[in-house]
C-alpha cells in the first residue's frame, strides 16, 4: 500500500467517524431535546455541512494555485491574494450576517448567504482575469461566512451548557477533516479538468448544502426573541459585547489558539518538504498525523466533560500547550532531535489546541444567548482575523522550523496569558441550566 493510499484511507476513516460521532449527540436537558432523535440527527448533520463549507472553499482551491498563475499569466504572489480575499470575506461577512440573523431569524440570511456563494462559484468558472476572480473569491467568503456564523448561532439556540460544548466538539471534527479532504478533492478534479472545474465542484457542494438547509433546518429564533434595532441596535449589541471582559477574553483566546494552528498549516510544508526533504506523500502523512491529534482531542473533550467543566479543560489545555510549545521552540532553535524533535512537541501542541478550541466558543456563546448571532459573528471574525495573521508572520520570520515554532509558541503564550489574566477561568461559572429557547417551526 502506498503512502498516498494510506493517507486517503485515513481521510475516509475520519469521514466515517464524523457520521458516527454526530449520531451520538444527545444533549440531555437542552432545548434540542424537544426534537425527535431522528430529526435532531439530521439537523446536527446539516450543521456539520455548513461548518465544512468555509474550509472547503479555502482549501479545495490550493492545488490549483500554480495552474491559475500560468493560465492567467500572473504572479504567484498575486494569486495568493485571492486566498487573502476569501479570508477577508469570511471575517467581514460574519460581522454582517450575525446581527442580521438576530434581527430577522436564521433561515433567510443563511439561505441568502449560500446562494451568494453558489453564484460567486458559478462566476468563478468563467472569470476571465485575476482581478475578477479575486473579487468573486471575496463574495465566496461572504457566503461561506453566513453558513459558519448561522450554524454556531443555531447551536446556541438549540443547545445549552454542556450540550453546546459537546456539540462544538463534534463540529470541530468536521473542521478538522474538511481541510484534509479538500486539497485531495481539488487534486482529483485537476486530474481530469482545469482549475475551473474546482469551482464547478464548489457550486455543486453549495447547491447541495442549500437544499439540505432549506429542507432540514427549522427557524430556531422565534419572532419574540429577535432584535430589531437596525444599524444602531447592531452597534449597541457589539458595544455591549465589548464591555463583557470575559467574552472578549474568550474570543481572543479562540483566535490566538487558531493562530498557533494557522502557523502550523502555513509553515509545515516549507519545514518538512524544504527543510527535511519529505516527498509530497510523506508530507501528507505527517500533516494528517497532526490533524488526527487535533481531531482526536476534540472528541476526547466530550469524555473529559463528564468529569471536568469547560473552563477547567480550557485552562489546563492552554498551560499544557504552552509547555509543549516551549519544548518545540527550544528543540527547533538548538536543532536537537532532528525531525522527531519537531514532530512530537508539535503534535502535542495541536492536541492541546484541539482541547481548547471547542470550549472557548462554548463558554463565550453561553454568556450571550440573547444575541447569539452577533456573538457568534464576532467570535468567528476574531478567529479568522487573528488566526490569519499567523501565516504571513511565519513568512516574515523566515519560513523555517524556528519561525514556525516562534509563532506557535507565541500564539499559545498569548492565549494562556489572556485566559488567566482576562478570562480568569477559576472564577468563571458555567451554568448548564441557561434559559431555554423554543424551536419555531
UniProtKB/TrEMBL annotation:
Q: Where is the Major facilitator superfamily (MFS) profile domain?
A: 43-428
* Gene3D superfamilies listed in its UniProt record: Multidrug resistance protein D
Spell out the Pfam families in the cross-references.
MFS_1
One of the GO biological process terms: xenobiotic detoxification by transmembrane export across the plasma membrane
Q: Which InterPro entries match?
A: Efflux_drug-R_Bcr/CmlA (IPR004812), MFS (IPR011701), MFS_dom (IPR020846), MFS_trans_sf (IPR036259), Sugar_transporter_CS (IPR005829)
An example Gene Ontology molecular-function term: xenobiotic transmembrane transporter activity
Q: Keywords in UniProt for this one?
A: Cell membrane, Membrane, Transmembrane, Transmembrane helix, Transport
* CDD domains tied to this protein: MFS_MdfA_MDR_like (cd17320)
- Family to which the UniProt record says this protein belongs: Belongs to the major facilitator superfamily. Bcr/CmlA family.
Can you say what this protein is called? DHA1 family bicyclomycin/chloramphenicol resistance-like MFS transporter
Query: From which lineage does this chain's organism come?
Result: Bacteria, Bacillati, Actinomycetota, Actinomycetes, Micromonosporales
